Structure formats: structure tokens, C-alpha cells
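Private note to self, pasted from the team thread so I don't lose it. C-alpha cells:
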């Protein structure tokens, strides 16, 4: 058992493998979420239900409700017990079980319950998976790795609708769920293979164990990394150990495996109330929370009514709806890795602001009910730019965690997941009601979305980053004016 558990330690504990597993988890989560989006309206119609958009909205609401309700408990538990792998495995079991329940549900309320459990499973990969990436990744590469992991989101959304529509049309209602279960099983294997950095010594390679030495005043201590932008950053922060050599004390980087930000007795420094209070006081955390809420709401609003809209305007069947969504989502595979890489070099607020602003005109194109090609182009570019913001705001949250004592990565990604869940809980209800009860429902939905985008862009500009982007801009202009005045006086 020990040999099996320690096999491949170097690659199974590397940040690239961890990122790959989380990427697969995100992909599977979004695949399972979206694979039934083009299927639900047609299935409910076959079952004899009316007000299809509203019922679809409630099913998406149930998923997001489970996601939002479970987030707080998962985030606190992940930081308290300092184990990432077990909740990841539990989340996968929830995901598989919910698929089986939904597939076999004989009544509508049981379908809703299955979606709630699916939301709970999703929380694990979003909160714990993102935290694990930050635990093991060098700080100057966190944005890049988060961007790569987030690309699984768009690939899952890319594969889900066409696969769901085609499999439903060809093989029936159970087919999309069986495909989702297969993906989840492969994802489960990847999660089992992960070895966390703080694995027990018997599972680690044969190297000298990290140790502490006494300082000159006789107190036993560790030399913690003082610059959070260098070396791997983890909630259990890597520390500098000191070894004796012939030339004196030499520092070597060894991850010291113990909970970070804890008091002398090993308990967390902040209580649950303390964590919430610290995050509420953080301008940057509040900014990301609002943007996450808007991101979740917009994604859910579109997902809720797009199948019905395409069917109403262009008379598309479920498989053709899936193909339209496939063509539109392909470009979004590339945006999170690109913006994640750029955020490590140029900061998060400008990239977030640019992604939101550039998506607005293309979102306006969705209003046009002319050639289908115009709709697809607008949908593709709107998705490309808007999906790119998820990597910068995730990187911003990692920076927030490093800047507040007692706040771990799971706490801040709990914020992201909770407000995304709240947005995606409210979004389907708003979309379903607006589309069913407003004469120009689709137009009203698109205008609402544009208003939310403008608000989010302003928040990114004014409140993200240690020095908000607007102050950076005015500071640069002021320095330029001062330099020009100085040269003129000379």
C-alpha cells in the first residue's frame, strides 16, 4: 500500500499535475452542468409540462442553491482540517450520485434535489481545487495556473450542449447522464492520484526531512519566507529551513508541513465570525464578490433561455442548439490561460476591466434577430472576452489571502464560489420569469445584462488591486504632468 501510495511522488505532487486534475474537475463539473441545458426544455415538454422556461430556471436554481449553501461550510472545513484531497473525493461522489438520481428521477421535485446535490459536489472543486493549486504553485505562476484550470470551464461548456443534444436525440434521455458519469469516473481517478505537498513522510521521496534549528537566543523557530511573491505560496506556507554547513548557516527551501496562520496551540487565528469580518472589511474581496455575482448571474441567465430563444426565433432542435453553442464557445478555450498569464505580469484590475468592456458590444449583437450567423459571432466574442475575467479575479483573491493574516485560500475561494452561486441561483429565476412574462423578454434580458456589465467594469476600475486602477492612471498622469512642468522650468 505504501509503495502504491508513494509511486510517482514527484509528478503526482507537482503543481502541473495538480493543475491538470483540477482542470479536469472543472471541465467535468461544467460538462455535467451544461450537458442537459439543451435537453431539459424538450424533456419537460415531452413529459407534458407547461411554462418550460420557468421550470428550467428552477432546475438551474436548485443547482446554484446547493452550490451557495454548501460553500461556507466547505471553505471553513477546508482551512480548519488542512486536507484538500478528501473533500475533492467526496465532491466527486456527490457528482456521480446526483447524476444517477436525476437520470432515474420519476418526479420533478426529485430532479431538483439531484441538482442541489450536484451543486454541493461542484463546491468542492471550485473552493478546494483552486485552493490546492495556490497551495503548491509558485506565487509568480498562480495566475497562469489558475487560468489553465479555468479553461476547463469553457471546454466543459463547449462539450456539454452539443454532446447532450446529440446523445439525447440519438439515444434518449439517459444518454447525457451516462456520458457525464463516465467523465466523473475519470476525474475521480485523477483526484485519487494526487499527493498533497504535506503528504506523510513515508509517502515522500528519500530526502532529509525539513527541520528547525535553534536561534542564537535559544528559541526554536522557523525562518518564514518574507516575500510572498517568491517561491511556492501555500496556505501551509513553504518555509526556509536552516542547515549547518562548513561555511555557516545555509538556507534551503523545504516545504514545512503544518497549518499556516495558526496560534501557538495550533488552532486557527480567526474564528468563523473573524474570517467573515476580515473579508467584509476588504475592499478587494468585496469587489471580486460583486463581479463574481454578476458573472454567475449572466452565465445562468443566458443558459436558462438560450435554447428556447433559438427554438422560437430560428426553429432549432436540441441537437442544432448544441451545435450553435459549440461554435460560439470554442474561442473561450483560450481566453482564461491568456488572461491568467497576463495577470501575473500586468496586474488584475486592467485585465478584468478590459474583458468586461470588450464583451459589451458583442452582447448587444445578441439582440439582433436576423441571420443566425450574426447571433453566433456575437455570442462567441461575448463569451471570449467575458470568460477571460475569471482568471484575473481568481488571482486577485489569491493576493487578498496573502494580504490578510488568518485568511486562507479556501476562505477567499469560498467568497468566489458563494457569490457565483448566488448569482447563478437568482439568474435563472429572473431569466425564466422575464422571458415568459415580458412581451420582448429576450430584449429585456440583454439590456439587463449590459447594465450589469457596465456596473462590473466600474467596480473593477475603482476597487480591485492594492492600488485601484483609476488611482494608478491618475498617478501616472500626475507624474507625467509633474515631469513636463519640471522640464519646462529647466
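Design output:
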Amino acid at each position: 500500500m505504501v509503495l502504491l501510495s508513494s509511486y510517482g511522488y514527484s509528478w503526482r505532487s507537482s503543481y502541473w499535475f495538480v493543475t491538470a486534475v483540477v482542470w479536469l474537475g472543472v471541465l467535468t463539473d461544467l460538462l455535467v452542468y451544461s450537458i442537459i441545458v439543451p435537453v431539459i426544455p424538450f424533456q419537460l415538454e415531452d413529459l407534458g409540462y407547461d411554462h418550460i422556461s420557468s421550470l428550467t430556471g428552477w432546475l438551474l436554481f436548485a443547482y446554484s442553491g446547493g452550490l451557495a449553501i454548501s460553500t461556507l461550510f466547505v471553505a471553513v472545513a477546508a482551512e480548519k482540517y488542512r486536507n484538500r484531497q478528501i473533500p475533492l473525493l467526496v465532491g466527486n461522489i456527490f457528482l456521480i450520485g446526483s447524476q444517477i438520481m436525476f437520470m432515474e428521477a420519476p418526479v420533478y421535485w426529485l430532479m431538483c434535489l439531484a441538482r442541489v446535490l450536484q451543486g454541493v459536489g461542484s463546491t468542492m472543486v471550485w473552493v478546494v481545487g483552486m485552493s490546492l493549486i495556490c497551495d503548491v504553485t509558485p506565487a509568480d505562476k498562480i495566475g497562469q495556473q489558475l487560468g489553465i484550470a479555468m479553461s476547463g470551464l469553457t471546454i466543459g461548456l463547449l462539450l456539454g450542449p452539443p454532446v447532450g443534444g446529440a446523445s439525447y436525440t440519438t439515444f434518449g434521455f439517459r444518454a447525457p447522464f451516462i456520458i457525464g458519469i463516465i467523465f466523473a469516473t475519470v476525474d475521480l481517478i485523477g483526484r485519487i492520484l494526487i499527493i498533497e505537498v504535506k503528504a506523510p513522510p513515508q509517502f515522500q521521496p528519500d530526502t532529509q526531512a525539513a527541520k528547525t534549528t535553534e536561534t542564537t537566543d535559544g528559541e526554536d523557530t522557523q525562518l518564514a519566507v518574507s516575500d510572498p511573491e517568491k517561491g511556492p505560496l501555500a496556505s501551509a506556507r513553504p518555509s526556509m529551513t536552516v542547515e549547518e554547513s562548513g561555511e555557516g548557516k545555509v538556507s534551503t527551501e523545504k516545504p514545512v508541513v503544518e497549518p499556516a496562520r495558526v496560534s501557538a496551540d495550533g488552532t486557527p487565528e480567526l474564528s468563523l465570525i473573524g474570517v467573515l469580518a476580515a473579508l467584509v472589511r476588504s475592499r478587494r474581496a468585496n469587489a471580486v464578490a460583486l463581479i463574481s455575482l454578476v458573472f454567475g448571474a449572466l452565465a445562468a441567465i443566458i443558459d436558462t433561455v438560450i435554447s428556447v430563444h433559438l427554438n422560437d426565433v430560428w426553429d432549432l432542435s436540441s441537437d442544432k442548439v448544441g451545435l450553435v453553442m459549440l461554435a460560439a464557445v470554442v474561442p473561450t478555450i483560450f481566453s482564461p490561460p491568456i488572461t491568467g498569464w497576463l495577470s501575473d505580469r500586468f496586474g488584475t484590475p486592467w485585465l478584468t476591466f478590459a474583458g468586461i468592456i470588450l464583451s459589451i458590444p458583442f452582447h448587444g449583437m445578441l439582440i439582433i434577430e436576423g441571420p443566425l450567423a450574426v447571433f453566433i459571432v456575437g455570442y462567441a466574442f461575448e463569451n471570449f472576452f467575458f470568460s477571460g475575467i475569471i482568471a484575473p479575479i481568481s488571482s486577485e483573491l489569491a493576493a487578498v489571502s496573502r494580504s490578510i493574516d488568518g485568511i486562507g485560500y479556501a476562505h477567499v475561494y469560498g467568497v468566489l464560489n458563494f457569490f457565483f452561486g448566488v448569482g447563478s441561483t437568482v439568474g435563472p429565476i429572473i431569466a425564466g420569469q422575464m422571458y415568459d412574462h415580458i412581451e420582448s423578454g429576450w430584449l429585456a434580458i440583454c439590456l439587463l445584462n449590459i447594465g450589469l456589465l457596465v456596473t462590473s467594469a466600474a467596480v473593477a476600475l475603482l476597487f480591485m488591486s492594492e492600488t485601484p486602477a483609476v488611482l494608478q492612471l491618475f498617478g501616472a498622469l500626475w507624474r507625467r504632468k509633474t515631469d513636463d512642468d519640471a522640464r519646462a522650468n529647466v
